[in-house]
Write a structure and sequence with these properties.
By secondary structure, the protein is mostly helical. It has three domains: 191 residues, no CATH class; 71 residues, no CATH class; 436 residues, no CATH class. It contains 30 helices and six strands.
């Protein structure tokens, strides 16, 4: 027991010791891993000797020094005195509080500088008379991360269990004094009290009310359909929009009946699980969509978990040394896959709709339909983030994680609902649910779509010229902006950050080399991401004019597959020599790569799509058209909305940091995939599927194309684009 509490007792009583040798110039405050370990080994003594020295320094005279030297409150001093005395009497609560502190362990040289201790052990340590109530604090001592674009240099983070009478101000006063003693420039220290305090304000009440109402509607609607199916089964046959009343024994289901069951899990699940593949559908898109979303989850599982692991040096070294990991760090191209799919379906289905309606398209209804289809599920997720999500976890890391999400959405939620969050706030890292930047881009591209559709349909040569011009302009703007702001490809930014972790001795008053403050502008702004969408529109146009059958010779097919495969593999793996070598590209070369890599990636996808649709896909088409992908592809929008919340929850509701490894990454990925899919199904049943059913009724979507220009206008998005003749993937 004494061995376990040795270091914690030293830390707790360092401020009341007569000698300052324990913290005067201790690398504990400098926080260089190699120096810290060297210092510990050089000063290692027997357990008994250290404990004796500490006990000798526990006196009223030294306790009073806390007040004089560190400006600690009288209440805190009294509680610390009692804690020290009770620990000498081996009181269970005192030993428990000391045992819960974060401790120096193995793996310091691998980046194990986060010692959160045991959060729940601290909270459960209470003395019998209740005079000392434990409170958990975390303290950070290291360099200021601000000049490094938010990237922490190696610094020490320690969890501690103090009497609640010791306020956050008391702890910070001690830390500030310790930092001042070191006289090391750039070093700072601060403490936090990670308490997950739930306040029942307006947002919480609205969130619980809305979710409860939706659940109630689902239950009532499901029960109504279940009873109707059992009571009127012989009379309910086929759907028809010609009836406006609830069906009777001699009538088919009418609009009121359809509205009544719009929230029913029975009918909505039946639609979700329908795997019928009709002639003329682009079936390979189901697999492309699901696999692309899985790639997104894999990339986010890797990136989000990096700073929640206790061996970040191992992670950085593994990334640099292993060729295969490039497929994970280059997962950003999965986003371009979705832009491509979106543009393809908008062009392909929009042109078919215009042909049915003699070149007419109701643009306003097109925008309205899409906004209504996208926004309810999106808004519900934002509402949950600011109301219910904070209630779903606890732990030393959870309060800060959920508070950051909630505070950003409290302020900037309106930008998301207007789909301008990739433009405002100016610092895109401050947007509500930051991963939703994709939706803003996609919606903005959709606003431009009628211009391209009209020109392609009425004046094909002009339309092709317009699309090509905008594609070229996007590439030029991306390249020019990249060169002007000195940007590197994303994977090389990861490489430079890995280099920072492996070799932390860099100046602290400059930005990380090649880590530009404009990185989010290059990644999130619509003028830099439009290229992938336009490649999709050109592909949709090719399929439209060729009626889904592009005839090619065997030589052309072979050349196409080989070229597309080499090109996309080169995009994903081609920069590994620079990653391994630790160097960056020439600025002009990097700008060229940033400008063309994403459109070229989509050109490779365009070949895959055209080949599969035209009958040249072989086993690739068989795999991508697998019926099991159809229901999963229908849930990808909701999966996209909720999966970061799942990852944050998994990483932030634990007491200690995870130990990174390939096994851990796979566990994190598959756990996220399964949990996100289950939650996405619930979200779909609560809001997305009912809204879709109601919109079918409101827009009379089952009627003939001649009766409604909007009936077959594509409402493509990640989750559920229209595939053929208005049959959406949901």
């Amino acid at each position: 027991m004494i061995g376990k509490i040795r270091l914690i007792f030293l830390l707790l009583t360092a401020g009341i010791a007569a000698s300052e040798k324990l913290f005067g110039n201790s690398p504990l405050t400098v926080a260089q891993p190699s120096d810290l370990l060297k210092w510990k080994l050089q000063n290692l003594k027997s357990v008994d000797q250290e404990i004796i020295e500490v006990v000798e320094n526990v006196s009223m005279e030294n306790i009073l020094k806390l007040k004089n030297v560190f400006n600690v409150s009288d209440a805190c001093l009294g509680s610390l005195e009692q804690l020290a005395l009770d620990s000498l009497e081996l009181e269970s609560y005192a030993i428990q509080m000391l045992d819960s502190w974060g401790k120096l362990g193995s793996g310091v040289l691998e980046g194990h500088l986060n010692w959160p201790g045991r959060y729940y052990e601290c909270r459960n340590a209470k003395n019998k008379n209740g005079t000392i109530i434990p409170k958990y604090y975390t303290s950070y001592i290291g360099y200021d991360p601000t000049p490094l674009a938010g990237m922490f240099l190696p610094g020490l983070s320690v969890g501690g269990c103090f009497p609640s009478n010791c306020s956050l101000n008391d702890i910070n006063n001690v830390l500030y004094k310790l930092v001042n003693i070191t006289n090391i420039p750039g070093v700072l220290a601060f403490a936090q009290s990670p308490e997950n305090v739930i306040r029942w304000g307006a947002a919480e009440r609205i969130g619980v009310t809305v979710c409860s109402t939706l659940v109630l509607l689902v239950v009532i609607s499901t029960l109504y359909e279940y009873i109707s199916l059992n009571k009127f089964a012989p009379s309910v046959k086929t759907e028809s929009d010609s009836q406006d009343l609830i069906s009777t024994s001699n009538q088919q289901p009418g609009k009121l009946y359809k509205l009544a069951i719009s929230f029913s899990v029975i009918s909505n699940t039946r639609i979700l699980l329908n795997t019928e593949q009709k002639p003329g559908q682009i079936n390979c898109l189901h697999g492309m969509r699901f696999l692309s979303m899985s790639w997104v989850l894999l990339g986010h599982s890797y990136v989000f978990s990096i700073y929640s692991t206790d061996n970040i040096v191992f992670t950085a070294r593994y990334f640099v040394d292993h060729f295969g990991i490039q497929a994970i760090t280059n997962a950003t191209y999965s986003v371009d896959s979705f832009f491509y799919l979106s543009g393809l379906l908008v062009a392909y289905l929009g042109l078919r709709e215009m042909r049915r309606n003699e070149g007419k398209i109701n643009v306003l209804l097109m925008y309205l339909y899409r906004y209504i289809r996208l926004t309810p599920a999106y808004a519900l997720v934002i509402l949950i983030v600011v109301s219910i999500y904070p209630m779903l976890g606890d732990g030393p890391m959870w309060p800060q994680e959920q508070q950051d999400l909630k505070q950003l959405c409290d302020v900037n939620w309106w930008g998301n609902l207007l789909y301008i969050n990739n433009l405002y706030p100016e610092n895109t890292g401050k947007q509500c649910i930051v991963w939703s930047w994709y939706l803003a881009n996609d919606f903005q591209f959709y606003i431009l779509a009628p211009l391209f559709l009209y020109s392609l349909y009425r004046f094909p040569k002009l339309g092709l010229s317009l699309v090509t011009f905008c594609l070229t302009a996007s590439i030029a703007i991306t390249g020019g902006f990249s060169a002007y702001t000195n940007q590197q490809p994303t994977v090389l930014i990861f490489a430079q950050l890995s280099k920072l972790v492996l070799h932390p001795n860099i100046p602290t008053n400059t930005t990380t080399p090649q880590y530009s403050p404009y990185i989010n502008d290059l990644y999130m702004k619509p003028w830099c991401r439009l290229g992938a969408y336009l490649v999709g529109m050109l592909t949709g146009y090719i399929l439209y004019i060729n009626n889904n059958k592009v005839k090619m010779s065997k030589v052309t097919v072979v050349i196409g597959w080989v070229s597309a495969s080499i090109m996309n593999l080169a995009i994903v793996y081609g920069l590994y020599p620079a990653v391994e070598g630790g160097y960056v590209l020439d600025n002009n070369t990097a700008a060229f790569y940033n400008a063309v890599s994403r459109p070229l990636w989509c050109i490779g996808l365009a070949w895959l799509t055209v080949a599969c649709v035209s009958g040249y896909g072989g086993p690739v088409n068989t795999l991508l058209s697998w019926k099991a992908f159809i229901p999963l592809s229908r849930l990808t929008y909701c999966v996209y909305l909720v999966h970061p919340l799942v990852i944050y929850w998994l990483l932030s509701t634990v007491e200690v940091f995870y130990h990174n490894s390939i096994a851990f990454l796979l566990m994190m990925f598959f756990t996220t995939l399964v949990m996100a899919t289950m939650i996405a199904y619930a979200l779909s049943m609560l809001i997305e599927a009912p809204v879709s059913a109601i919109m079918k009724i409101a827009f009379n979507k089952s009627s003939s194309p001649q009766n409604s220009a909007i009936s077959y206008v594509p409402v493509n998005k990640i989750e559920q684009p229209v595939i053929d003749d208005g049959q959406k993937l949901a």
